[in-house]
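Backbone shape codes:
===
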Amino acid sequence: YRQSRTQPTAADVVEEQRSREEQDPDVELDRDNGPGESDTNARADEVEEILRKEIAEGIVSVAVEDGVVVIEALENESTDDETGKISQDAISLLSKVSDIQAQLDGLVRVEGAQFAVHGQSNLNDDNVIDGASSRSQDQLEQIRANLSDEIDQGLAEVFRDGDLIVIRLAERGSFQSGSASLQADFTSLLDNVGASLTGASGLVQIEGHTDNVPMSFGNRYRDNWDLSSARAASVADYLMETGYVSSGSMVVKGLADTKAIASNDTALGRSTNRRIEVVILPN
């Protein structure tokens, strides 16, 4: 297969939202007095600025403990009661926290039920295997709930493959024959997939798959390897540009016809093999 890591874009940089307004005394940070206090407090100030809205609304708190900035979710009303899907406010929060973790690596710890339900993890946390498995199962069930309509319509499948969570997207309406340009109907599906990935733990791998029919003469792509790689890259670019996944958390693969899931001897089988798979890898 061919594999490449996507390049960072401006969407991956956490925007500084510094303000000169006085901070409400009710949301003052706890400070420690250990070594490196100045640096830790500076990081805490940055996190507090990014999450100022959520802090003011009582959704999260930010504190410093043992030289680590701790973001704690104070409530767990993050899903719509009728649909069970992630609310837009929760998506916004999880996206911000993912960006903060990417920028500060293991210097930030998250706590609270809301982060656990949606698969948000501590990058430097030594949790037991059972706990990680539980979070993975919670994440799988949440993704299924978010994509329930698409699953019912046969546009998507969500399942586990060992430690992996796989979102399989059917060919219908995704790309024109021999092209890697996203169709309008497919982008609406990718929006729902992207929202489901917000706050996901682990690297996100975008895989392009084709049938075994060779490229026609004069096609832009030399072979199915190139085509599958280009299609995976188009999906990855869309998810980055729309802010659902950061570039540092995503890898693209073009697998051509090497991972067929149906026979290429029939039109139906070839159509089934032409697909995109979004794979959430374990930490």
